[in-house]
Each structure stands twice: as structure tokens, then as C-alpha cells.
Design goal:
The chain has about 300 residues and is mainly alpha-helical. It has one domain. It contains 15 helices and no strands. Helix 2 packs antiparallel against helix 10. The protein is globular, with a radius of gyration of 19 Å.
Length: about 300
């Protein structure tokens, strides 16, 4: 098994933990913007500290970077926020269920975006596995069958447009992060990943802080007051993002994101054994299809 696969699975585990913690943020009554801001404001100092310590221990100073690196980081950081905004706007709409299904196109969109921006290609079997996984994810995101049964008839609305936009923009963000990691010319994969994470989260923290100062001035204080939970959100986010970026340095984004969908299977396990909720037959079917697609990627991609 190549290294990027277990690293991606670890990233998915960390992301599952982060989403679980973010559910707990409901008790703090933070807004969606505040919850998103918590990811960046706590990750930035942790990532900076980790990059400095790891660099000193391994004799790596400030890495050599090109102008292209800064373009990739700026695009990645900005598009990640924009995609998150699309998802937040989606939740505010009545017909958001079909839109949520369209957000799952990120993995598919990573194929053409990766080719256009970085020249990344996928094998025939790799693409087949990605398509199979997409249908599995649709089943998992639609346990009652309401979306996939009517998806053609209901596809043309603002909710689906927002969902598709977020899928495309998240794909651009992921590919841009891979471009940024590959553009760092110093250090090993871990250092390059942490360095990119530090730069990107500082940029995102500044952008979101400026926005919140203008639109939600009191929300930053509430984020800091809830540091016991928001700090853990930041920690799990840092672990997950570092692992994603390490994997991006080794493999193209479409494959990494496709294997990373194992996060949905972890969520099923948590649903059964932690929240004691019933899993529907469609969820079992979706989980089996998704697992088959991941195994195809591991064996043939």
C-alpha cells in the first residue's frame, strides 16, 4: 500500500472527529461564520509553531518559493472560503437537499480541474472507481430516496446551482493546495504540507477576521470564549489538513478525495455505535458501493 492511502485515511478520521466536535458547537450558539472562523484562527498558530519546530529539528529554514506558489496559496485559501459560503447559503434554502447532492461532485470535478491546472491525469479504472463512488455517496447523502428519485426534475434551481458551485470551487481549492505544496522547493512532504497550511490559514484568518469585524463584530469574541471546543476543532482541523496536504503532495487530488470519502463510512459507524441511530437500507447500499470504489482505487489506480 502506497503511503498516500493511509495518510488520506488518517485525514478522513480527523475530519470525522472535527465534524463531530462542530456538532457540539451548536450549544455555544456560534453562527456559521463563527464556526468556520474557529477552524482558521486556532489552526494558524498551531501550524506556524509546528512548521518552525519541525524545520529547526530538521535543519530546514524558510523554503524557496516562486511567485506561482503565492498564487496557488491565495487561490486555494480564497476558494475554500467561497465554497464554504456557498454551502452555508445552501442550508438557508428550502430546496437544499438536491443542492447537497450536487456538492458531492467535488471528486468528479477534481479530474478536469486537476488536468487543467496541473496536468494531472487519471487512469481508466481510476475514473470508473470515482464514478462508482459518486453514486455510493449520493445514496449515503439521500437515505430516504427523495433526492435521487427526482434529481432530474428538481435539478434546475438555485439550490442545485449553489451545490454545484461549491463542488467546483472545492475542487479548485484542493487542486490549488496540491499546486502550492508541489511549488515549495525545500523540505520533505510533511514540512511542505505544514508550511502551506501555515501560510494559507494565516491568510484565511485575516480575510475572515476583516469580514467579521465589518459584519459580525461580536462573533470573534464568542469564538474565543468557547476556546475549549473551538480549540479542539482547530486541532483536529490542523491534523486533517496536514494529512490532506501530505497526500496531495504524493497523489492527484481526485484520487485522494475519492479515498477520503471513507469519512462517510466512519460517520456511519459513529451513527450506529455512538448515537445509536438506525442505518437505512439505502445507506448500507451506498456504503457498500463506496467501499467497493475505494478498494478499486487502492488496487488499480
Amino acid at each position: 500500500m502506497t503511503t498516500w492511502i493511509p495518510v488520506t485515511i488518517l485525514a478522513a478520521l480527523a475530519q470525522t472527529a472535527r465534524f463531530g466536535l462542530m456538532r457540539q458547537l451548536k450549544v455555544t450558539r456560534l453562527s456559521s461564520t463563527g464556526t468556520t472562523f474557529a477552524r482558521y484562527v486556532f489552526v494558524a498558530p498551531l501550524a506556524i509553531g509546528l512548521a518552525l519546530v519541525y524545520g529547526m529539528l530538521n535543519g530546514v529554514g524558510w523554503p524557496d518559493t516562486s511567485a506561482l506558489f503565492w498564487v496557488y496559496v491565495a487561490v486555494a485559501g480564497t476558494t475554500q472560503i467561497l465554497a464554504t459560503v456557498c454551502v452555508m447559503a445552501l442550508f438557508a434554502r428550502r430546496n437544499f437537499s438536491v443542492g447537497i447532492a450536487f456538492t458531492k461532485t467535488t471528486v468528479l470535478m477534481s479530474v478536469p480541474v486537476g488536468f487543467i491546472l496541473l496536468g494531472d491525469t487519471t487512469s481508466l479504472w481510476g475514473f470508473v472507481a470515482i464514478v462508482i463512488g459518486f453514486f455510493g455517496v449520493l445514496l449515503l447523502s439521500d437515505p430516504q430516496g427523495d433526492v435521487t428519485r427526482n434529481i432530474v426534475r428538481r435539478a434546475f434551481n438555485m439550490g442545485s446551482a449553489l451545490g454545484l458551485a461549491s463542488g467546483v470551487i472545492f475542487a479548485v481549492a484542493g487542486v490549488s493546495y496540491r499546486g502550492a505544496v508541489l511549488a515549495v522547493e525545500t523540505g520533505d512532504a510533511f514540512f511542505r504540507a505544514v508550511f502551506v497550511l501555515a501560510i494559507a490559514t494565516v491568510l484565511q484568518t485575516v480575510m475572515m477576521a476583516a469580514w467579521m469585524a465589518l459584519r459580525e463584530s461580536g462573533e470573534m469574541t464568542r469564538v474565543l470564549r468557547a476556546w475549549r471546543i473551538t480549540g479542539l476543532v482547530g486541532l483536529t482541523s490542523m491534523v486533517g489538513s496536514t494529512c490532506w496536504f501530505v497526500a496531495f503532495s504524493m497523489q492527484n487530488v481526485a484520487y485522494v478525495n475519492a479515498v477520503g470519502q471513507i469519512e462517510l463510512l466512519f460517520s456511519l459507524v459513529i451513527t450506529m455505535f455512538v448515537f445509536r441511530e438506525r442505518i437505512s437500507p439505502r445507506e448500507w447500499q451506498g456504503g457498500a458501493i463506496l467501499m467497493a470504489s475505494i478498494l478499486m482505487l487502492i488496487l488499480y489506480a
